[in-house]
């Protein structure tokens, strides 16, 4: 049975730290990886669950259909689960936009529940911090629910209660563009509120009251600082990197990272190539994908045959204009710098699987043991790895729920 925190002797760490990382050392590393509760805090796979014909129980390959998460590959990579994302693209900040996004978000939430209901021997919904260990002990996969982009809530924060009842335990206010809650790190028009809007401040308060972790990934630096200051419980960056390695708006600098850590927060390292390093521009590839995206519409509305045709066209584009990916070393440069600044009790993994994540030699969850092997080789202990892979985010969830429960107890007095 996997356990959260397990120590490892200094001799084993020293051996794994040796430049001569032998096959037997790799086997030792893999065995250690299997003993940990391994979670990723940003699984965008629900976007595939709504596609006709996609079967999470069947083994896929990135080369065949561009997917990165399924049960066979989770087993191969020792991934026990994590936070499955309700993602909604940013649309117009209008009542019609809110309603459309709300429906999309509810369908994504239902898709997560349907995945669990259809495969009860494989998946289990998790809502409490202690659920993770129990679910793994039962031989199942952990399904916490998060929301990337709170835009579907519109201006009615009572909807957060509805999603909470559906299992939501993490929420990020924004995505690529500003919305009613505050400023994105990547809106081409720049900041609108210089951080959180008044409604965004109310969202922080509401999330605290319910016991939901607040996620600052995609937020502007000012919004993240506002959340750190206003939130009564620590904030997470579920899939972010460091500006010290690559100065991209989606990443955070060391000063802000230290503020996050001082408040008890955690940063989970993203594997999205264009956030890790400067990549060569390919105007022809961008143009070809632009044409394809205009043609495709919504994948959830397509027939299996239409989806197959779309993937065939995408493969053709990939063949004619292959993407340049960041390397595993680019990814680890972010990871190791963040560990140096934040420490293993404030660092985790949120690679952005099925949402654009993936680097050379680590293009799906089957390759996750590479991270454990590298961190062991760098001298981090198995106890450190237990924190990185699971304990840290579960601590944040416990703190969020403890605060929410304290409010309930106060109300009773």
UniProtKB/TrEMBL annotation:
One of its GO terms (biological process) is proteolysis. Keywords: Signal. Residues 1-22 form the signal peptide. It holds the Pfam family Peptidase_M19. InterPro entries: Metal_Hydrolase, Pept_M19. GO terms for molecular function: metallodipeptidase activity. This is Membrane dipeptidase. It comes from Marisediminitalea aggregata.
């Amino acid at each position: 049975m996997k356990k959260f925190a397990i120590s490892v002797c200094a001799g084993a760490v020293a051996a794994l730290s040796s430049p001569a990382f032998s096959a037997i050392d790799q086997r030792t590393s893999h065995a250690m990886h299997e003993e940990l509760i391994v979670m990723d805090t940003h699984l965008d796979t629900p976007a595939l669950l709504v596609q006709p014909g996609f079967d999470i129980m069947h083994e896929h390959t990135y080369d065949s259909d561009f997917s990165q998460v399924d049960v066979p590959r989770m087993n191969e990579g020792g991934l026990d689960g994590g936070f499955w994302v309700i993602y909604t693209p940013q649309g117009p900040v209008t009542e019609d936009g809110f309603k459309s996004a709300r429906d999309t978000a509810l369908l994504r939430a239902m898709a997560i529940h349907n995945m669990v209901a259809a495969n009860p021997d494989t998946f289990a919904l998790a809502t409490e911090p202690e659920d993770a260990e129990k679910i793994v002990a039962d031989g199942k996969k952990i399904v916490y629910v998060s929301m990337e982009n709170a835009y579907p809530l519109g201006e009615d924060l009572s909807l957060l209660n509805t999603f909470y009842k559906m299992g939501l335990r993490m929420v990020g206010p924004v995505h690529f563009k500003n919305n009613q809650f505050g400023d994105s790190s990547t809106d081409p028009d720049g900041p609108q509120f210089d951080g959180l809007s008044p409604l965004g401040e109310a969202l922080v308060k509401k999330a605290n009251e319910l016991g939901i972790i607040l996620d600052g990934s995609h937020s502007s630096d000012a919004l993240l600082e506002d959340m750190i200051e206003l939130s009564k419980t620590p904030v997470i960056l579920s899939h972010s990197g460091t500006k010290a390695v690559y100065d991209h708006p989606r990443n955070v600098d060391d000063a802000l990272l230290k503020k996050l850590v001082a408040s008890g927060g955690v940063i989970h390292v993203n594997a999205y190539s264009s956030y890790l390093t400067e990549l060569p521009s390919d105007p022809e590839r961008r143009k070809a994908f632009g044409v394809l995206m205009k043609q495709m519409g919504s994948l959830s509305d397509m027939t299996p045959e239409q989806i197959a045709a779309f993937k065939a066209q995408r493969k053709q584009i990939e063949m004619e204009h292959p993407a340049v990916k960041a390397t595993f070393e680019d990814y680890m440069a972010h990871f190791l710098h963040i560990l140096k600044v934040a420490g293993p009790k404030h660092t985790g993994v949120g690679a952005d699987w099925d949402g654009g994540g993936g680097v050379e030699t680590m293009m799906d969850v089957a390759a996750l043991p590479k991270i454990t092997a590298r961190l062991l080789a760098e001298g981090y202990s198995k106890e450190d790895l237990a924190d990185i892979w699971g304990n840290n985010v579960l601590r944040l969830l416990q703190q969020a729920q403890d605060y929410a429960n304290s409010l309930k107890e106060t109300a009773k007095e």
